[in-house]
């Protein structure tokens, strides 16, 4: 089997697994065998069994149903943060690199100011000021996550903006907006796409960390990181309440990480980099 076919099979496999995560994200609550919000004080802290596959929590709620439902909060926030940061960062970097001058200096100073703070500490601070909630946690991560895209896109635009095809487009009378959309972004898009794919697992870990600290999801919304925080109170007597949400995070991060690696390897092979 040649290398190209191996890369395609690997990419298809992880795309299939990611599609499974998306299906759970979209339809997890509908697939739940029990009401994920229903308290049953007669079945508190039950271990995994035939009726409750993943056991129950400290309020007697079905942990399997809450894992399925919580995928929407955890995964949707991850994809939304990566999408927004990629768009905002790329826009800022392209504008700074293409136009230069005062606009470039302003964006560069803004980057330096934000980078002077440790990223995770700043995210916690922003989330703490805005208050608990998945949207506020996403805003906190967006506030720091756009920087790598801005720096990368700016450096690439500086390299290509004086290329012959850009000069030819200017001589043909094309305006700056047309040149950016039709010539600049298509030439840097593949690198930024790979960067976004590789950012997925790290972003999910950051969202789960904020949730674990109580800065993301609000009760009674199930969210994997917050479910781990709730489960740690009974870690010695009911360890499944922490280990199962942690396992869901771990499996999702591994799938997203391998998907990013597979996309990167495949695109590098297509472009002849490897």
TrEMBL record:
GO terms for cellular component: plasma membrane. It comes from the Bacteria. Coiled coil: none annotated. Belongs to the binding-protein-dependent transport system permease family. The chain crosses the membrane at residues 12-28, 75-98, 110-130, 136-152, 234-256. Residues 71-260 form the ABC transmembrane type-1 domain. It is found in: Cell membrane. Gene3D superfamilies: MetI-like. Keywords: Cell membrane, Membrane, Transmembrane, Transmembrane helix, Transport. This is ABC transporter permease. Its main location: membrane. The keyword DNA damage does not apply. GO terms for biological process: transmembrane transport. It is a multi-pass membrane protein. InterPro entries: BP-dependent_transpt_permease, MetI-like, MetI-like_sf.
């Amino acid at each position: 089997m040649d290398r190209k076919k191996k890369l395609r099979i690997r990419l298809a496999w992880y795309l299939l697994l990611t599609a499974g995560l998306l299906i759970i994200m979209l339809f997890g609550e509908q697939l739940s065998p029990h009401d994920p919000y229903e308290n049953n004080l007669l079945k508190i802290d039950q271990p995994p069994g035939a009726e409750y596959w993943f056991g129950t929590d400290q309020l007697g709620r079905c942990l399997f149903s809450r894992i399925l439902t919580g995928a929407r909060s955890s995964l949707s926030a991850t994809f939304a943060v990566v999408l927004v940061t990629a768009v905002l960062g790329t826009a800022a970097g392209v504008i700074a690199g293409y136009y230069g001058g005062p606009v470039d200096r302003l964006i560069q100073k803004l980057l330096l100011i934000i980078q002077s703070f440790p990223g995770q500490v700043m995210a916690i601070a922003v989330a703490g000021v805005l208050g608990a909630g998945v949207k506020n946690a996403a805003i906190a991560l967006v506030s720091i996550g756009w920087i790598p895209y801005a720096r990368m896109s700016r450096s690439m635009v500086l390299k290509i903006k004086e290329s012959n095809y850009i000069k030819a487009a200017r001589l043909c009378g094309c305006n700056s907006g047309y040149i950016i959309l039709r010539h600049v972004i298509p030439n840097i898009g593949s690198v930024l796409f790979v960067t976004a794919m590789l950012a997925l697992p790290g972003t999910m870990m950051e969202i789960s960390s904020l949730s674990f600290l109580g800065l993301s999801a609000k009760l009674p919304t199930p969210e994997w990181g917050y479910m781990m925080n709730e489960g740690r109170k009974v870690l010695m007597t009911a360890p499944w309440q922490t280990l199962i949400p942690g396992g869901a995070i771990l499996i999702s991060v591994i799938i997203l990480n391998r998907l990013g690696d597979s996309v990167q390897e495949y695109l590098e092979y297509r472009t002849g980099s490897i």
